[in-house]
Amino acid sequence: MKKILFFLLFSSILLFLTSCNNENTNKKIQLAEVTRSIFYAPQYVALEKGFFKDEGLDVELQTTWGGDKTMTSLLSDGSDIALVGAETSIYVYAQDSKDIAINFAQLTQTDGTFLVAKEEKSNFSWDELKGTTFLGQRKGGMPQMVGEYVLKQQGIDPHEDLNLQQNIEFAHIPSAFVSGDVEYVQLFEPTASAFEKEGKGHIIASFGEESGIVPYTVYMAKQTYMDEHEAEMKDFTKAIYRAQQWVAEQPAKEIAQTIQPYFEDTELEMLTSSIERYKSQGSFATEPLLQKDAWNNLKNIMEEAGELPEDVAYEELVNTTFAKDVLQD
Question: Could you tell me which residue ranges the SsuA/THI5-like domain spans (predicted)?
Answer without folding.
Answer: 41-253
